[in-house]
Amino acid sequence: MVSKIRKCPSCGRYTLKEICPVCRRETEYSQPARFSLEDRYGKYRRIAKKRQL
């Protein structure tokens, strides 16, 4: 489960929106998801990460 709070990487403000209301940059989730050995979607996350790079 992912938290709903997000953080702007440039100005460091926290918000619930996908776009920072102050600097208009895209926000990120504030914390990574918890690690689990029984991760059902890990394979797909790794594929998406490779495509992003």
Main attributes?
53 residues; three-stranded antiparallel sheet; 1 helix; elongated
The beta-strand count equals 3
Succession of helices and strands: EEEH
Number of helical elements: 1
The major beta sheet can be summarized as: 3 strands, antiparallel
Mean pLDDT over all positions: 86
Low-confidence stretches: none
Mass-distribution shape: elongated
Q: Compute the gyration radius: what is it? A: 13 Å
Class per helix and strand makeup: alpha+beta
Strand order of the largest sheet: 2-1-3
Distance between the termini: 24 Å
Percentage of β-strand residues: 5-15%
Helix content: 10-25%
Question: Describe it for me?
Answer:
- The chain is of the alpha+beta class.
- It has a domain of 31 residues.
- Helix content is 21%, strand content 11%.
- It is built from one helix and three strands.
- The two termini are 24 Å apart.
- The model has no long low-confidence stretch (mean pLDDT 86).
Topology of this structure?
Blueprint: E1 6-7, E2 14-15, E3 28-29, H1 42-52
Antiparallel strand pairs: 1-2, 1-3
